[in-house]
Every structure is written in C-alpha cells, then in structure tokens.
Amino acid sequence: MSTFGTLFKVTTYGESHCKSVGCIVDGVPPNMSLTEEDIQPQLSRRRPGQSKLSTPRNEKDRVYIQSGTEFGKTLGTPIGMLVLNENQRPKDYSEMAKYPRPSHADYTYIEKYGIKASSGGGRASARETIGRVAAGAIAEKFLKQANNVEIVAFVSGVGECQLDRSSQNPEFMELLQNITRETVDAAGPIRCPIPDKAEKMTKIVEDYKAQNDSIGGIVTCVVRNVPIGLGEPAFDKLEAMLAHAMLSIPATKGFEIGSGFAGTAIPGSKHNDPFIMKNGHLGTTTNNSGGIQGGISNGENIYFSVAFKSPATISKPQSTATYDGKDGTLEAKGRHDPNVVPRAVPIVEAMTALALADSYLIQKSRESTFNLVH
Amino acid sequence: MSTFGTLFKVTTYGESHCKSVGCIVDGVPPNMSLTEEDIQPQLSRRRPGQSKLSTPRNEKDRVYIQSGTEFGKTLGTPIGMLVLNENQRPKDYSEMAKYPRPSHADYTYIEKYGIKASSGGGRASARETIGRVAAGAIAEKFLKQANNVEIVAFVSGVGECQLDRSSQNPEFMELLQNITRETVDAAGPIRCPIPDKAEKMTKIVEDYKAQNDSIGGIVTCVVRNVPIGLGEPAFDKLEAMLAHAMLSIPATKGFEIGSGFAGTAIPGSKHNDPFIMKNGHLGTTTNNSGGIQGGISNGENIYFSVAFKSPATISKPQSTATYDGKDGTLEAKGRHDPNVVPRAVPIVEAMTALALADSYLIQKSRESTFNLVH
Amino acid sequence: MSTFGTLFKVTTYGESHCKSVGCIVDGVPPNMSLTEEDIQPQLSRRRPGQSKLSTPRNEKDRVYIQSGTEFGKTLGTPIGMLVLNENQRPKDYSEMAKYPRPSHADYTYIEKYGIKASSGGGRASARETIGRVAAGAIAEKFLKQANNVEIVAFVSGVGECQLDRSSQNPEFMELLQNITRETVDAAGPIRCPIPDKAEKMTKIVEDYKAQNDSIGGIVTCVVRNVPIGLGEPAFDKLEAMLAHAMLSIPATKGFEIGSGFAGTAIPGSKHNDPFIMKNGHLGTTTNNSGGIQGGISNGENIYFSVAFKSPATISKPQSTATYDGKDGTLEAKGRHDPNVVPRAVPIVEAMTALALADSYLIQKSRESTFNLVH
Amino acid sequence: MSTFGTLFKVTTYGESHCKSVGCIVDGVPPNMSLTEEDIQPQLSRRRPGQSKLSTPRNEKDRVYIQSGTEFGKTLGTPIGMLVLNENQRPKDYSEMAKYPRPSHADYTYIEKYGIKASSGGGRASARETIGRVAAGAIAEKFLKQANNVEIVAFVSGVGECQLDRSSQNPEFMELLQNITRETVDAAGPIRCPIPDKAEKMTKIVEDYKAQNDSIGGIVTCVVRNVPIGLGEPAFDKLEAMLAHAMLSIPATKGFEIGSGFAGTAIPGSKHNDPFIMKNGHLGTTTNNSGGIQGGISNGENIYFSVAFKSPATISKPQSTATYDGKDGTLEAKGRHDPNVVPRAVPIVEAMTALALADSYLIQKSRESTFNLVH
C-alpha cells in the first residue's frame, strides 16, 4: 500500500490539501552523517515553479527531520520527515468539481474509496512523491558511501523529439557513462543534456503550453558502480523491483531496461554481451542487458527508461461526462504543468535509490553468511 | 524472494535439475471447485516440445495437487502443487561448464551465491515458471468465477515483425476486445492471431533457428471485465504490480501499458480518455490509459505488452571469456529455444492473474467496510 | 521492524529526545468520522504525570492529524499523526552516561547499532508507544463501528497483590463480562477495578517508590463482541498475533490467554468448553479457551493477561559495571515510574485493537468471496 | 498466513488427510552442507507413536528434499520438502461428524471458511507442524554453524507437577546452562530431565489416559550462544517474535520469558541484572531478563516457557451440542494423545530456530554496513 521495501523501507503519507506530506524511513544504517542539507537539494529539484516550463505554484517544500538522527548522525532508528503543505484548501479546482478529469484519478478514486476527496485524485497527487524523494535522498547517500553508487536520470524524450536510446548506439552508451547531475541541470530546465535536443524539447513544451495542452516524455536513468549480486531470482528480480518502483510514479506508462523493446529484434548472437576480464572480475564488452542478468546485477551500468504520458489536467476544453453521466465540457481552471518529465527526474532517481538500497541490504545479509557455513 | 502477493500469495521452489518444481498457493478462497484438470491445460501450453519452434525436451509436466482441496473443492487452506523433473542431471550442459553463458544468469548466480549450480543459472531457469503457471491457473479460475474476468495473451511481435500496437489503432483495440485463447492457439504454434503476421513470425524463428541463432519478441495481454477499483495508490498501483509481475519473468526487457512509450508523443487533448455513461457506470470512449487511472482500474480493458529478448543460449559459436577470465569460444551444445514468446504466453497470463487476484482480494476487504462505518 | 499489520498497518517513528513522535496508519477504511478528539483520550490516559503514582514529567502529548482525513471523515488514505516532544535534550540522564542501566536497553542498543543515542535505549523508549496508542484509537473506533467490539484492559496484579485470574473463577469471568473503561478509571489511578485490591496495589507502589525502588504487575484485557472467524491458521493464529503485539510493548515478560499457565493442570474433560446454541450461533458454556479455538475467534470473549516487569530505572544505588567494564555504583538521577502498569493499560488496548482490526480486514476479504465462487 | 519470516522464510502446506505435508524454506544461506539426515531426527522426535504416552498412529514421516541442494550443499535457492501422508482418508473421525469437538478447531474452521474439511480442524492439525520442524532443522543447522547456537527444549510441567522455573532459582538456571537434547531424551519419553519429576509426570499422563481424559503441560526452551544484537526495537522485539512463534503452535495458551509472570512481584532492585565484564564483553551476573533487553538479545541465555493445554480430543463422553445446535453427548472414537508436551519439544525448538535465524540474518545485514558509512 503506502510502504516500499523489505529492509530499507519507506512509508509515505499525505495528499495535496492536508497539513503536511512526509514519510518514515526504516532500516537506515546507523552512524551515517545525515542532515536536512542532504535531502533538500533533491526536493528542490522536484519542486514546481522552478521555471516557466512548470506550474507556478511556488511551494517552498522545506523538509524537517523529526527523528532518527542525533548530532548529525543516523541512529539506526526510523527517520520521520515532513514537508508542510501551504495550500491546504483547494480553490482552482472547485469549479471543476462536477467533472471527473479525463485520464486523471478523480473517478477511480471515488469508486475505490466511496468518498470524494476535495483534491480529486487523493493520493494520486504529485505531492505524494515528496516523501519518496526525501527517502530516496537518504538511500542514495547510503549507496554512495557504501559503494560509490552514482544515480543520474535525465530527459531523453519530449513528444516526438527523442534521443536514440538504442543499446547499440555507442554515443548513447558513452553518454550513460559520463553524464552527471551537474551536466543534466546545466542543460537548462528541460534536463536533457544534449543542447540541441534540449532546445527542441523546450520549444515543444512551450508550444503545447501555448495551446493549453500538454505533452509527455521519457526519462532515462543510469546507475554506475552497482555491486555484482543485487536482486533476487524469481519474483524479486532487480529489474522487476525497478519496474515496480518506476510504474508506481504517477503518469508512467512504460519501463524498459537495457535494449528494451527495440532489443526484441536483435538476434541472440548480437544481443548477448560477451564476457571479458575487467579489474579482476568478469565484465562484458557490450551492455544490451542493461547491467542485469537473470535478475541479478552484473556490475555493468544499469540503465532504463520510463515513459510519462502527457499530463491529464489541461485548460483546453474537453468534451466529457460529469460524475452524474451528463455530457458536458470541462475547462480546467488554474495553471497546470504542460509536461512533467523534468520534475520527474529526481523522482526517478529517488525510486531507483530506494529499490537498490533495499536489494543491497538483502544481499549483504546473504554475503555475511559466506564465511559462516560449510 | 520466492513469494509473490499479499492475500493471494504464491511461493515457488525448484530449478532445472532437482526432484520436482512446485509451489504453495495461500489465500485461495474456499469452496471453489478445483482439480488438476483446471491447472494442467496452462502447464501444457507452457511446456517445451510443443512444436518445432521450441526446444525438443519432451517433459510431461504433469501437476499433482498435494493439499488444500477435498472432494474437488478448495478448503481455503494452502494448495501445495508439484511437477516432477524428469531430467535430474545435466548432460548437454557439461561441456559448457568452463564458460558462463553470455547474457545468461550463470555468472551472476555464482557471484551472488558463491556456489555454482550444475544448471548454471540456478533459479533463473525456465522451469521455475511452472509453479507460477500452476498458481496462475487457480487465480484465473477465481477471477473468472468472481467477475467473469478474461485474460488473454498473444504474440504481437517477433524480431522486426510487429503488430501496430498503438492505443490509437482501432483495429488493435478491436482485436483486444475480441481475442480469445482459442483464436490465439488456432493461429498455430507462434500464437499470433493475425495469420499473415503469424506466418512471417514463424519464418523469422525458423530462419534464426537454422542459423543456430535466436530472436526475441513481444507478448501483449488483455484483461477484460476487471472490476473498477483494483490497485492501491502510491507504491502498489495496479500497473506497478503488473510491471513487477512481468519483469519477474525470465528474459523480459520491457513493459508498457495502454499507450506506452509511443503515447509520450500524444498530446493530452488526444491522450485523455473522455468519460461517457456506459451501463450505469462511467466508462471512457477511448482507452489510451490501458484500463488504469491513478493506479486504479477503471473498468475498461487492461492491456499491456512485454518485451522478451532473444534467448541467450545459442549454438552459434561466441567469443567470450571463461569463468577464469581466459578468452575463448563457446559453442553451446544441445537444442535450445530459438524464441520463447509463444511459450511465454501462458506465463504472462499466469502472472497477470496472480497480480489481479491479489489486488481483487485487497479491494474486496476495503469494500466490505463501506456499510460498516459512518 | 517499525511496521505492524498487513491490511491495517501502522508504522511508527520517534524516540525520547527528537522533535516529535508519531505514526502513519495505512488501510483505515474510508468514510469513517475521525478527528483528534477520537484519539486524544487514550493518549491522555497513556500520558505520564497523571498521578503521584507515575513520573512527574508533564508532557502534554497533544496529537495532530497530518493527512488522511477531510471534513472530519477518513479518506481511505494513510493517516499521518504526530505528537511533539517537549524535552528534546536529556538532562537528568547525563550523569548516568557512564553506565548502561541494568536490564534497560542502553547496552543492547549500542551493541546492535554501534552508536550511542543520548537517550540510552533509543527506540526502546516509552515515548515510542505514543504512535501505537494513536493508531490503536483509530483501529478501536473502526472495530466499534463495524461490530460493536469493546476492548477494556485493567490492572490485575501489582507485586504480590493479584486478582484470581483463573478461567474457572466465576467472579473473574463476570468481571470480564461487565468491566468498562469508566469503571477501570473510576477505581483510581492504579486502574484496578476491585476497590480493596486497588488500595493494596496503590500502597505497594507507594512503598516501593519510597524506597527508590520499583515493582511490576499484570494487565488483563478483555475483548467483547469479536466476530467469529478472525485469525489465520498456522503462523498467524489470532493468539499468536496478540502475543506478538503484547510482547512488543516495552517491559513485558509474559502473555497468557484463556486458562493460561494455570490451565495446563486442568484435565481436558474440564478444560474443554462445551457447545450450546446461543442467539442462533453455537457458543460455549465455559470459556477456558479465551475466545479462540484453533487460532480462530469463536465469538466468546477474548481475554488475556500480560506480565510487566518492574521498571529498570531506579534511584536506589546499584552495583554494576560501566560501559568500559569497570565495577561501580549507579544511582539514577531524576524521577522514574515506580510502576508502569496503569499507564500500560491504554497501550495494551491499542495493540489489541491493531491486531484485531488487521485480522478483521483479512477475514472480511475472505468472506466477500463466499458468494462469488462455486 | 502460512508464511513465517522475512529473510529466512518458511511457507507450509498440508493438513491431516491430503497427499503430503511440506514446506518451502527460502533464504537458506548457500554452500551449507545439508541432506535429509539433518532433518529426519527432529521429525522422528516429533512423530506420534514413539511410546505408550502418545497416540499409536505409526506414521513414518520420512522427509524428501525436492530442491535447493546439490551434491549435499545448499544452493541458496528455496528448499522444497515433503512428507507423505499415509492415512489420507479419515475413519475414526466419521462417527464424530455430527459434533464439533469442544475446544477444537472444528467449529471455528467451518465458520471461517464456510466449508467443512473431513479432518474437522483443517490446518489446525498437528500434521501441519511437520513442515515447521523440517524447516526448523535447517535453521538450527545454520545457527549452529554460524555461532554455535544451541537450542534445547524440555518438559518442565505436566498437570500439577512442575519444576520450579523461577529465574531466581539457581538450580533451574544451572539446568538451563547444562541441559542437552541427549539428557532430555535419556530421561524417557516424557522428556523431563529431572528423573523423579519425570516419573511423576509419566504417572500423571498414564492416569489421565486410563480415564480417557487428557492433561496439559509446560515446555521450557533455552538458547545458548545467541549473538548480541538480535531483535528489532518496537514491533519486532526478539521476545515478540518468539511469542508469536510459540503461540502459533497448536494448543498453546501462554508464553513467558525470563522471570515471566512470577517476575512481576520482584522489585527492580532485585530484578535488574547487574553488568559485569565477561570475555571482553559486558555480561550480566543474573538473568531475570531471559537474555533479552529492550527487545534485543544481550548474549546471555535466552529462555522461555510455553503453556500447552490438555488435548481437546478425548474419549470420555462430553455433553455438548451438535453442529445443528442440538444437545447431545460426544464420545470421540479412536486413540488420542492424552498429553502433547513431549512431542511439542521438537516443535518448540523448530519455531525458536526459525525466529532466531531470521533475526540473525536481519542483524547481519545491518552490521555489514558498519564499516561502509561515516
């Protein structure tokens, strides 16, 4: 339900119009340095109102740690965190109250719970992801300290403008090897690190915004320095945990890892990643697998892409039925994100970190037994 | 690890070269008629050796219910099931023992566990899926009785030959509305229901087989008559559970639901599914959402596609390193599936049924409280 | 770890000296009326400083709902709650810092986590139970509305003074049938409803307090109107969930249900509870079973007792070793509870409610299938 | 439901009258030597028909490993195990079919599931514990290899005849330090290691048997060489996991650890266990705590006792109602255990091992991070 993970476990609470949103992160290793300063940067990257490409609701989104640290160190106990909601009562949404927004959660929420939240979609709110991003920042810090794990997501597609994400495109593979959050953010608010593509993508978003419409996009994420051995065979393969994590982000419609859908047309003789000795371990010369084989990380870069649909709330008039089933026209008031992928970047990074930190702790437990049994 | 689900819960055991493979299915509703005859058909559809398109290992794969039923009815207690392994000791694999097969689980398995299973990939074995298919058949029977839920998967792509899977292609939407398992199987062993496409796909597989190579493909699955309200907001959105389920199947590289990756280029004004009154409930006129909005089923058809890479084990010689890191050439002995997607069809159906049955029982619990509280 | 429950699920955070303590309650049925006024009374009953029998730290312990309700109704989404800590930095404890308190969590905490929390025992703090009591109040309200379930705990023993808790003592069985929270609290701060026993118990506590010592006691809890059918056979028998819940409360040393330890000496012919028709259902004429048979509630009163040891922190000098292993004498400064059982009463009630609400939702899911399958 | 544990996880299946009973044990460390010979001894100790004190159904209860081992070593993959049922159809029970047996699970089972199993209590069958004992034997072997953990249970009470189990009785503490399974079994079928007590207990059982009646008893269990640091604060305290494990065993009515219920009358100044340096770690001079403080193991012996009621199925005539609510007299046919505690000994040991192995793996994961973070 609202909990993710087995040993590194996050539970979130909150929706758009309540007092605060937040989370409890359980299983954080003790004795790790941690303050709000480690968490705020990703929350600020997630925040709306960062540029004219996103909604102007200027929430400050400042995080407050409630428990689990002392003198700047984690205690090993659960870390409670919260971010205040500033807009606790809906205004812009009120006129739309007769209509369930098409392709939004308004209708399914009311059918599932038998009650209508004033925010419409209830927990299917972008604000729910604040708790995830806060928790993910802790997971990420742990992975960085533990194995120098680097997680970088970026926008690889907006509308028709897409990078060539082929696992057989050497330039893309090189991009994955070198990209950093700094280069992603330096490229401007669209968070695509290829300048001419970034420019085109920005133009696309602006055009749809001008039409009171919206457009979707793709976020790609790479993880470097993942230790070999993460992921559990059968149901909890590492790619299955990542797919679960990604499709739990609002507005996602797809996930592909390594060669992905395009890879289905590459014959085995080209798709197989040959082994070669690298730094005392076997590595592979190509990486169509996306860093995972048989559900278990192989030490190569893990990379995957996530499809985000165009945002459902648009100001453009839409013919659709009211809750009562009467035909009508919905014109959503207020200002809405014409595109969510730049803001989705830190959310993808957070969910990646959460899935990996959990897998890491589970595998560490197993490895700890290697010298104990015979 | 080896358990999937919260209320409808399956736990599997077994790998290629042990005595049996099987599962325990916990949480099956009591008083449902159930015998081996309900389970065997899907196991037979999963079995290798059904045609020249798949590996000739002719395992009989007969299932034996051990517990949880009496006089042909479920007791509500866990259902133990097993299928004997006939080939308990590897032969064909022995010469390959020096090499970890590229893009197979051999290497990651040994790194994860610190021990080499004679089957190489250990649990990353196609035989592990037997327990899933057996459990899925029970889940499916329950969903059918409870809400007339219909789950049909089929091959929508092999290599370069793919159906137009666009959510905006009316023919594809109609196919999803009408397809049955009978029409899927009637189309021949490739399990693609469009005859000319099926013929091309078959040819592609045969060509790669002739070259001792392999090729990947895509399986699409549609679920009809899903009740409104399944799926939990936040981490356990219905699409997240389905993505988890699908990416846990061996050899999968991608998942997309509804409009999927292509949908990212459709603007909101076209992508949004307008509401309309249908049979006393709101329904939608289009279905780019794939039957899920805000993580919750909306009563429309759920459909999604799963990418399967080309099988890793090929007889064609491959330059790759030995476990010791020495360069060499691996020529896999034995006969291997040149393509897995037709056999993946019942596995996709099974995992779909398991994810849905669990979501269904969780939502039924919630609904049962609607008249209790005030 | 810090999460309890499957469908009705609480996760807590916080320790003695952090900003706040609190919890997230997931799975609360939607549309139930709920405000802070439903939760505060049990928190106030749990609060220290209610009488001269307990520690004078006068914390106000006011609860703030953060999410999951709107206009006084639950939304079905997670309910975040917090209570501020007023004493965020330890003072009284500072001089004791050289010594792990005997029979307290100071030493095991530091060994488990490799870090010393300034509060000593970290999460093994009585303040951690605030989140449980807040969550339990919600569970209790749900059970009351759903089935008129009544949960009443009381003090049945302090030191040598104990009620005759035998399942074959008709007076005790009658007490269980009639006792209410009002009669428990009316009996004075010791929360034993038998006046002369209450007086003796009070005297015992005062005597130990005067000696700077402490004493233990027993809390008995009865639950009336439990529906038949709660509890899962095998590992999650209802008594197993209750035992888990009770032994998770700080300072507990034992749990017994129905006839308990004394019942081991009653032969089957007297211990068995004969069936008789009651209000259209089978009931039993005696209740040695404590309302549960085969792990499943049978509709009779559930009752059990919980043993609480004497509090570990006492001002009386104790010969014990420092963290460094040097012999010395610890004299705990500050004022400490000489006895915890009166304050444990609402905690026992809360954990009981949490275990039952979860079992109830799980069974409701099963029952919802009875008319669906055939 | 039928699964216990987080990292070391067992799932069981089976009841009295199905083909087999068994389990899947997931999370067993790889590379540990394991064959049926490691498992059979405890199953044989659990088996009925070992002496005239127990039921004469002479089941052979031979265990067959299905998966997860190769060449006598664990693979790290799930271990499937099964034991065939020989008596698949009930006979003796048939005449009793009109009556739910008092204090047995017959009635609650039918109310919970809405179907009547021919065995009456369904999963509330002693045979369900076979899977637990098999799994426990693996857990125990792991703990023995990992930390030389020793788990020994024994009968400490039958009817009115009980050992003085006080935590302040030096003889009892010494018994806990020295007792072995060999000395337990050497004492005769009653499994009480004090000869004169064993004789009295045997006499008590024989007397009740002669009267077609039954009697209860107490099993005490000690665990030596438990590493410091096991158990999670808050809900999953080590004593809470043990209490859960013990109360999940059929026929149990109570659990107490360390000083237990009697300890509630010992003042803090005597109950607190003073620290002293022992072998480079702090230890305690007394052990009223039972080896756990604040929910975390402290390295001292863990010991606890479990109350078992008198068996519900007796041949002595009982006045009770039929399923239809008509008054009548039930005379159970067949031969039934007049007392279960000797056979419960290996079950208590198994559940102890399962709870500890899981806690151990969880703590090992945490400890593995100590040198990784800063």
UniProtKB/TrEMBL annotation, chains A, B, C, D:
It comes from the Eukaryota. The keyword Lyase applies. Keywords: Amino-acid biosynthesis, Aromatic amino acid biosynthesis, Lyase. It catalyses: 5-O-(1-carboxyvinyl)-3-phosphoshikimate = chorismate + phosphate. GO terms for biological process: amino acid biosynthetic process; aromatic amino acid family biosynthetic process; chorismate biosynthetic process. GO terms for cellular component: cytosol. Pfam families: Chorismate_synt. Its cofactor is FMNH2. Residues 34-60 are annotated as: Disordered. The keyword Membrane does not apply. Pathway: Metabolic intermediate biosynthesis; chorismate biosynthesis; chorismate from D-erythrose 4-phosphate and phosphoenolpyruvate: step 7/7. Reduced FMN (FMNH(2)). Its EC number is 4.2.3.5. GO terms for molecular function: chorismate synthase activity; FMN binding. PANTHER family: CHORISMATE SYNTHASE. Homotetramer. HAMAP family: Chorismate_synth. Belongs to the chorismate synthase family. This is Chorismate synthase. It comes from Dekkera bruxellensis. The lineage of its organism: Eukaryota, Fungi, Dikarya, Ascomycota, Saccharomycotina.
